[in-house]
Amino acid sequence: MGAMALVSAGGAGVAFAQPAQPAQPTTTTAPATTTAPAATTKPAVKAAAGSFTAPVCEATAWTPLAGQLTLIGTRLESYNAGNVVPLYGNLPEDDITIQYPPICGVRMVDGKPVAEWMYCTDAEKGTCAGVATEGWTNPMTGEPVEPGTQLNDYGEPVGPTLPKKGNEKLSADQEKIISFLLLNGVEWPHTYPDNGGTSTWTNNSSQANRNALQDAVWCISDYGVGDAALCDKLIGKEKQKEILASMPDEKVVLELQRTDPTPGDELPVGDTAKFTLTTNLYDQELDLTLPPNATVTLCGGDAVITGDKIVVKGSGAAGTKVTLCVTSDTDGRVDLSVAGTGSPVQNIHWNQANSDVEHPGEPRRECQVFATFDTTSSKLKATAHAVFVDDEGTGSLGSTGSLGGLGSLGGLGSLGTGSALGSLGAGLGSAGLGSAALGSSDLGSNGEGSNGSGSNGGSTGSTGPSTPTKPTTPPSTTTPTTPAQPSTTTPSTPAQPSTTPQTTAPGNGGQQGERPHAIDGGEAGLGFNTQTGIGLALVLLVVGGAGAVLAVRRLRG
C-alpha cells in the first residue's frame, strides 16, 4: 500500500510497514457541521436496494466487519458485473476505511463467489480497499458518500477494480517470479511482531505467511523501497535465477506412463507397479491422487513426496523423469494421477481501480495493481493405472489370448520327416497350457516310445529321458508314393476301425513303413493309427482343451 518504511526491531522488524492514515472524518457518524461548501446541505445518500454477503478468504483467523463482507450499492454492482471487489486487509485492527495488504477480494465465477487474496505490486500506492460507512463524506469535497462505496487511502470514492493485462512497470522476468511466488512460494523464516508473528513460508496459510508473501512480492516489484537486506537474504539474485530456470518458457510437459507391468496392466497384489512421470513443472507442488488402499513412493529420480504432493527438481523445457512405485493391499484397478497448474504467468489475474487517475506527488491517492493467483483455473492432469489381482490370478485369464499361437500347429506336417513332437509340447507350454514335457516322446517315430514303455504310438507322458532317443529311420530303397489327395467330390464314408484292439509288442509302434514327407513345410498325413490318435486327442484335451484337439483335427482333415 503506501510508501514502505523500514521499522527496526532488533532484526525482527516489519520490512514494509503501514504508513499513517491521512486525516479524515470519523467512520462512525457523520460530522455535525462541516466547512465544506453547499454540499453539506445535501441529504444523506441511502444504500441501494439488495445486498450480498461475501465469503472470507483462506485462513482468515478473525471475523471481518459486516460492512466489509456485505456488498451493497456500487460494490454489489461491480461484483455482479464480474469484477473483483476488495473486502478487507491482512490487519484486523485497521479501520474499515483503510486496509493493509494483502487484500481479500471476491469475484463471481460461474455464478458462485470466489474469495482470493490479492497482492500489491506498487508499494508506494494505496490499496483502495476501504469501505464507506453510513454518513461518510468525501474529505476532499465534503460531499456525502453512499455507504458501501469503495474508498482510496485518502477516503475518496474510487471506481471499480477492473482487470488489466499486467503491471506495465514490471519486466517479463519480474512477472514470472511474482507468479511463481503466488503459486508456490519460498521459504521465509522471519518474525512480524505486529502482523501475525513468525512466518515460515510465503503463502496464504496464515497471517504471518501472507505478510511474508507480500514482502517477497515487493522485493521483486519495489526492491530498495523496503528492507533490501531481507530481500537479499531470502530472495536474492541467485534465488531469482533459480526460480526463472524452473519455469518453462515453452509448452508445459506433464506425462505419466506405466512402465511395469508392460505390456499388459496386471500384477499380483503385493507386487509393485512402476510409473514414469515426466514434467517440466519444477519446484512446485503437484497433486498426487490414488485410492486409499494404494500407496505411492518415489523409487527413482530427483523429487520429494510429502503426503499427497510431489515436488520435482530439474531444469529444461523437455522435462525431467522420475519413477513412482505403487502398491496395493487389495485387488482391483488403481488409478494414479498427477495434476499441476500450467504456466503460472497465465494463471495470474491483474486488477486495478482508477487506473486512469493520477495524482502527481501523492501516490497514495492512486490505486495500485493487484496480482491474484486464479485458484479456479483448470489444472493439467496426467493419469495411468495398474490392475492388481489376487493370488488366484483371476484377472490373468486374459493371457489365454496367447492360445492363438496354436495356429503354428500347421507346422505339424513336418512330423512326416521325423521331427519331434516336442515342439508341440514346448509351444503348448509357452501358451501356459501345460508342461512342455508333453513332447518328450517322439510320436513321429511310429511307435518307438522314448523309454520303450509306450504302446501304439509311444509314450505321451513325461516319463521319458530328458533327451529323447532319435528314432531309427527304416531303410528305404524306393521313393514312397505321394498320399492320395482328397477328392473334390463328396467322399465316401471311410472304413471304420476295428473294434478289436491290435496287439503289439511293447515298445513297438503300430503300423510300420515309411512316413509321408511334407512338401515345402505344408501339411502331410500324420500316419497315426487309431489308438495313437485317440491318445493324442486325450492328451491335448487334458492339456490344451477342446480347442487344441480341434486344431489337430483341422490339420489332419
UniProtKB/TrEMBL annotation:
It comes from the Bacteria. The keyword Signal applies. The keyword Repressor does not apply. The chain crosses the membrane at residues 533-552. Residues 1-17 form the signal peptide. Residues 446-461 have a biased composition (Gly residues). Residues 443-524 are annotated as: Disordered. Keywords: Membrane, Signal, Transmembrane, Transmembrane helix. Residues 462-506 have a biased composition (Low complexity). This is Gram-positive cocci surface proteins LPxTG domain-containing protein. The lineage of its organism: Bacteria, Bacillati, Actinomycetota, Actinomycetes, Mycobacteriales.
